[in-house]
Amino acid sequence: MSIRKIVMHPAEILEQICRPVEKFDKKLAKILDDMYDTMIENDGVGLAAPQIGLNLRAAIVDIDDEFGTIEMINPRIVKTAGEQTGPEGCLSFPDLFGEVTRPDFVKIEAFDRKGRSYSLEAEGFLARAIQHEIDHLDGILFTTKVIRYLKEDELKGVETE
Ligand code: CO
């Protein structure tokens, strides 16, 4: 287990388009394990590779539901539907929370750590977290989508990604 240091905004790596993962090897598995440990240590529900300083299209999401930990390597959003507006935070922006509007439903295609492709459909908060992480892989930060920042007394139960 290793906990990595989270890259805080502003940092160039957070606004770069990440490169696809090409090798599904032990090194990738170690990166994903470290991302998990780092996310849990920081009470997050998601983490993307650039947030630990790596230019790689790899991200994880775990909102503590029946899906468990979702590992997304080279993910693509293939379908979206509906709309939701809700609070978001990001581990790279401590103490900053805002409302973001996103599709309510997403279908993604991605690879797992062994290089097996899968597709997954999600809605609501899970769909939000998945989209937040995939945005990170394209250098898109949630602050570019915030429609209203939240005040301290509005933060109860808000998760960070
Ligand atoms: Co984030």
Tell me what the structure shows:
This protein is an alpha+beta fold and 161 residues long. It has two helices and eight strands. It has a five-stranded antiparallel β-sheet, with helices on both faces. A three-stranded antiparallel β-sheet has the order 4-5-8. The relative contact order is 0.21. The mean pLDDT is 97. Bound molecules: cobalt (II) ion (CO). Residues 90-92, 132, 136, 161 line the site of cobalt (II) ion.
Write the topology of this structure.
Elements: H1 26-41, E1 46-48, E2 58-61, E3 70-81, E4 84-90, E5 93-102, E6 105-111, E7 117-123, H2 124-137, E8 146-149
Antiparallel strand pairs: 1-2, 2-3, 3-6, 4-5, 5-8, 6-7
The protein binds cobalt (II) ion (CO).
Briefly characterize the structure:
Helix content is 19%, strand content 34%.
